[in-house]
Structure formats: structure tokens, C-alpha cells
Amino acid sequence: MKHKLFVAASLFFGMSLAAQNADEQFIRKIADEVLINSQAYDNLRTLTKTIGARLAGSPQMYKAEDWGYRLLEKSGSDKVLKQRVMVPHWVRGGKDEATAILIGNKKKALQVIALGNSIGTGSKLLTAPVVLINNFDELEEKKDQLRGKIVFYNYQFNSRFIRTFEAYGDAAKYRSQGPSRAAKYGAIGVVVRSMSHSVDNVPHTGGTRYDSMYAKIPAVAVGLRDADWLAAELEKKAPVKISMKTNGHFLPDAEGNNIIGELKGTEFPDQYITIGGHLDSWDNCEGAHDDGAGITQTIEVLRTLKALGYQPRHTIRFVLFANEENGVRGGDKYAELAKARNEKHILAIESDAGGFTPRAFSINSNDAVFEKVKSWLPLIGPYGCNELVRGGGGTDIAPLKEQLGTPLCGFLPDSQRYFDIHHASTDTFESVNKRELELGAVNMAALVYLVDKYGL
Amino acid sequence: MKHKLFVAASLFFGMSLAAQNADEQFIRKIADEVLINSQAYDNLRTLTKTIGARLAGSPQMYKAEDWGYRLLEKSGSDKVLKQRVMVPHWVRGGKDEATAILIGNKKKALQVIALGNSIGTGSKLLTAPVVLINNFDELEEKKDQLRGKIVFYNYQFNSRFIRTFEAYGDAAKYRSQGPSRAAKYGAIGVVVRSMSHSVDNVPHTGGTRYDSMYAKIPAVAVGLRDADWLAAELEKKAPVKISMKTNGHFLPDAEGNNIIGELKGTEFPDQYITIGGHLDSWDNCEGAHDDGAGITQTIEVLRTLKALGYQPRHTIRFVLFANEENGVRGGDKYAELAKARNEKHILAIESDAGGFTPRAFSINSNDAVFEKVKSWLPLIGPYGCNELVRGGGGTDIAPLKEQLGTPLCGFLPDSQRYFDIHHASTDTFESVNKRELELGAVNMAALVYLVDKYGL
């Protein structure tokens, strides 16, 4: 059946059997090169263990930029570019974040972490009674009870979704919009259930966005076991107060850079294929899956194509984007410059969904591009990505679509484990599997090769 | 495209659109029941943490049988059966296994573990010069140099295979046949490179099979980093001796049991669908993936079908097989009794490839059965298994095919992480992801439902 599909697709798109055979062989060479000689895992170890957390504006951001620049040079770029971009510089402001629960005279410490971009409580504790809010509908129902209170959003990460990014899409608004929507009704602080279905109690950060119409109030995420406990106490109508202390604040914008390796096209040097991930991570973790994986896979694709002596027809850009986590300034700058230079971009691919075993690509394009990429699945599928779905490509490349109409492609590894560790201290090097990381690079390289060879 | 395939398949097999719709809805119910109410993960915790390692004949084997019996009752079996079977009773014989390397006057301890079923060195150390053997061809070339020596098989687990079970199939003969093939030429001991591509140094055991033509000699597996180190020393022509001590021996066969839950068929009570895994594990690990996952998924399928009030047309047997690891006596007994009773078995399904994210089923059957199962992929694929391949079903159900010609089906989760932990102390509860385990049960339950509804 696989073979039949293959023949059908090839007849449709006019690939000869000889061409298919050559493609099969070249992709097998890509896989061998990666699975035998890959440097992705060792590079990831350096990025996560030597440099570590690297939020925009932090000293580690600069170290990561230098590391990426040198590695793109060493991995065979014809040239390496820097695109300067001003990035936000939020700092957690100390490790003494704390939230304590008071029930009568009893006191219990909760495992919390301040939300990214959130404001601190100042030097003193913020203490207030807590209101349990299970969803935004309930917020509206209880809007008259929120003044002077701390809102606890206990919205459940919905385990019924098979693709866990859908559960995240469903829940993340409580983190991004929750604080301002509570402040609108006079709340003075927010505790939000972590966007996760993990079995542990580790809290997950992530960016919040204050609506300038309302007061900025402190906000923390709480671990899942503590969230369950707190909800149970509140459902018992226990009189619960929370005391919280956070220290977050913004410093002046900092000067960051997109770091870009380039392989010059032999036939269409002015037509670009972009492949990338983001170099920054949240400050509370090693950012191994998010997005050290995407960064090291991107560099591995470059290393592999060079190691095989591949000379691309189009110019391929290997982009380590600045500042995805709390600003997307890197992605915006990349698209802005591409537009200003009137560049033609035929496809942009991002890996920012973890370093897990490959399963699919998502495509945001017209039908013709979708069907053409789909016709290549019989070639790529044996290495993991045997499915093509419609969907966004990635946060960093989205501005290319907005600015230039570029088709986007997202690399989609298996999503079951991702939200166990996303934006949490558990996103460590040890949570990445060497072969899974490498197979991601194989699938990405295969797609880049086919796009470059056949166009879109 | 998915929808088109779906319609095409349904027309071919005569399923009405209404039937497809009902099937989609029922499988969605299965998924909801498992993802919201699953007990598989908690059951796995009990099996691995409370009972632990459970090799055939061990006290833990009996505890696991009792646990399984009670759980099959509690999960809704119409009745629970025991099939008595005599099982081999190999014991490691002490935790003081050791292998030291001597180079000149230097001494280094290697991380080793005796192979299952292997003979011990007796109370004294076995010390001899070492010969590096990279493969069986080299063994034949060097056959005159092996008398009185210890053979070190350093055959590499081939990372070029995308499906890692192929690498295992390629390498495992050095563990199963290596000792006797070395003994044939007078070797007195064997050290074998672990069948793994893990990044750690943990040794992996597994069964060896002595050929009764030759002397039984002690044999250990060595961790990968130590294997690399040892090979490098030997390639430098360093004069290397190994001293090893192991204590393995067989006790008299023990009385074990297959533990079987049954749901009686309403229309065809004398036609059976078997689903199962194996209850035993190697003695050096919790056996969480191998095969606690298969056991708890099998029981979860039962619990789920009962929770949904499903009344099967055929009799479904949920089988916890005894003694897969070093004897397959449980699987043999099950097929022997089925044959003696002239039972009709329409399909046997096994989960014994780990508790990782679902990807495929393998089928060992004629073309008609294969194509019929394939026609159901559009219904099951959204939950993970979107591929059907030809291949064996599982060690425990293989005798059913041999004895009765029963079509076999193997549940194939993603294989990239499996040989990191297979037969090693790292096969722990913590290495299993809750959702991945549960999704396996969803896919297995969906297949059981479709086989029961439509037959094969």
C-alpha cells in the first residue's frame, strides 16, 4: 500500500521513478550521516549544561549567541550573519518567590513560579483571601466578589485532546489573559494552575500579557498537586488566604541578535528556504526541548548537508531566532528585513515543539503547496513524519507569512511528553533522547532537500 | 485525504457510513474513559514498586500472579482462570557479580551483569586473557586463538536501523548464541556488549541459550561505555586479562500460572480474541516497559470495555502470560490447551514492545486479514497507530499461530527509547509516561472492539 501510494503520488507530480530512487538514496544518506555522526546531542549538552537558561537580555543570551555563531561557522555555513534586534529584558528579580496558604492558623507553602513578564509584589508580602475560579464564565459570574482578592484559576488541562498542543491552546489563555481579566474586577493577585498534565508538582511559567486598561497585578503558576489540594480546600469552603511574594520587573530593552548561517544557492541565490528554532529559553530551565532541540537540529541539518557535499539550488538560511518566549522580536525582525529587501522566501520551517520522536509536519499554505509536500511523505515517512496536517508553522516564522505570504511548515514530534516539562525546571538535557533528537534532524533535512530540489 | 481513504476503505469492506460514525463515536468513548479514568498507571506503580522484579520461579512471580488475579476480577472479568504451567527457575545467586580488567598491574572494574540462564563461575574468580571479537565472522577467523580465553563480543547495536527492534534482531544472537559458539573453540568465558544504544553505562541482561554440544561457560553483558573502553584497550594490543565472578544456576522447575480474565461472548462464546502481555520480568529491573506496560494495558482494556457496558460478541481473553523472558512456557501452555480443547481463535494481540507512544500494529496473517485490519486504520490512527506493518505479533502468542494458525497482531509503540532500558536496571516505573501508556490501551481497546464487531 505504501508503495502504491508512492507511485500514485509520483505520477501525479511527474517525478520519474529514477528521481524517486535518487531521492530515497539521498535521504538514506542523510539518515546515516545523522545517526552515525550527529553532533546535535553533544551540542545540546553544551547549550543546556554550559550555558543553561537564556532568557532575552540575560548574560546567557549573549553566550548562546556567541556559541551559535561559532557553531554555524564550524558546521559549514558560507557565511554567518547577525541581525540586531532590541529585545525585552524581564528579570525574575531574585529566587525568593514564595506563596504560602493560610487556613485558620495552619500554613502550607505551595510550589509556585512567577509568570514571565509579571510584576512583583514589592518588598512586602501580598496577602488576601482566595477565590476559586474554574473558568472565565465563572469569573464573570463571580465578578462582584473579586475586589481585593487573589484569584485562583484552576482551569484543567484537558486530557481528552490527543494532540496535547490543543489542550495547551485551550488552557493558555488563563495564563496570558487571566491576570488582567481578574484585575478588571479589582483582584490584586493571581494564582494559575500550571498548563500541564504532568504527574509531578513542578510549576510551569510562561508569558502573561497585561492589558493596559487595567492594573498590573502579580501572578504566579502553581504545581498541579498543590493546585488540586488548594481547590479541594476551597471547595470545602475553608477560609483560605494566600500570601505571595514575587520580584519580577522589566529592565530597559537589550540588544539581541538573530544568528543566521547561510548556504548560498547555486541556481536561485535570491530565493530562500528558512529553517530554524529559537535560541532563548525561559529563565527557570535549561530549555532543552524548548527550544534547544530546534536549535541543535537546525545546526545538524546544516552540518549534514555540508558533510554530504550537498550544493543547494536555493539559498538556505539556518536561523537561531532571538526572543521567542516573551516578545517574538527576533521573528518580527527577520520578516521585517526580508520584506524591506524584497526577498523571495519559498518555505520557512520551524522546530519548536520539542525534541521528541518525529511524527508529522504541519503546513500553513495554499492547497497546491500542501499537496506537493504531501506527495513527499512516502520518502520521509520511513524516518518518522508520516503525516501532514494543516496548522501553523511556528511562532518565529509566523511573521514571514504575515509580511510576505511565505508558506510555513512546523516540525511536529510526538506531543505526549511535551507539556510535562514545558516551561518547567524539568525541561533538562536528560529529558531529551539522543535518537529522537537526531531523527528530528533527519526528517527536517529530508524536507529541506526535497523543497530545494523540486521547489514549491 | 484521510477522509477519502476512509470512504474508500469503507466502500470496499461494505461498512455503511452510519456504522463508521458509530465506530468513531465508540472509539472516542474508549479514549475518554481511558484518558480520564485510567487505572493503568497506578496499577503499573503497584506492580513495579510494590512487587518489583518477578522472574519465573521467584517469590515475586507468585505475588504478581495474585495481584493480577485480583485485578482481573476487580476490573470486570466474568471469570478469572489460572493455567498451571511448570516454569524454569533460574537464579542469579547473589549480588556479588563482578568483572575486573587487568592491564599489566592496573585494575579496573567493569559494569557487568550475568546473562540470564547462564552458569556461574563457582566460588572462585575466572581469570583469563581476553580476545576481542567484533562479529561471528571474526570468531571463525580467530578460532584457533580462543582456547582458555575469555571472548569479548563487541558487536555494535546498529544505529542505522530506524525501527530499533531490527537492530536488536541483528545483535541479539551474540547474547543467545555467543557463549556456546565461543565454547566450541575452547573459550572459557564470554563478555558481550549490551544490546543497546543508550548513552549510559548500565549493562543489559537477557537470556542466553547453551548448545548442549559444547561446554556451558559463564557469560556477562557489559555496559556500553565500558565496552568502548575495553575495545580501545584491546585494539592498542594491550595485554588484557579479565577476572569474572558470577553465581547463576537453575533450581528445579517451579509451578507458575497464566492468569486469564474472560469476558464471555454473547453471540460466539466459543470464538476467542486473546489480548495480553507477560507478567514476568528479568530479575534486575522493575520490568515497567517489559512488560508491566503490556500487562496494565491489557487489564485497562478490560476495565474500559466493562466501564462502557460493552458486551462482546466473541469471548475476549485477557491473558497475563507466565515466563516469557527465559522459557515462553506460558505461551506454549496457552496454545497447547487451546489446541487440546479445539478452540477457535480469531485473533491474538500482544503488547510487549514497551509502554511508549503508539505508532503501529504489526500483523502476521494472510492478506485478507491484513487488508481488513488496514481498513480500520482511519478509525484508530487519530489515537496513534496510523500504520500497519507485516511482522510477528509477540513471543507469547506465537505458539497460537504455530498450533492453531491464529492470526497474530503486535502493538508497536515508538521504539526509539526501548533499547535504552530493555533488560536493564533503568527499566523503571519512572521511565514510563502516563499518557503514552494510556494511549496504548486506547489503541488496543479500539482494535479489540473492531475485531469483535466485524470479525476477521
TrEMBL record, chains A, B:
Claim: Transcription is one of the keywords in the record: no
The UniProt record lists the keyword Metal-binding: yes
First and last residue of the signal peptide: 1-21
Record SUPFAM superfamilies: Zn-dependent exopeptidases
Domain Peptidase M28: 258-445
Pfam family, one: Peptidase_M28
Alphabetic keyword roster: Carboxypeptidase, Endoplasmic reticulum, Glycoprotein, Golgi apparatus, Hydrolase, Lysosome, Metal-binding, Metalloprotease, Protease, Secreted, Signal, Zinc, Zymogen
Subunit structure of this chain's protein: Homodimer. The monomeric form is inactive while the homodimer is active.
Protein name, UniProt field: Carboxypeptidase Q
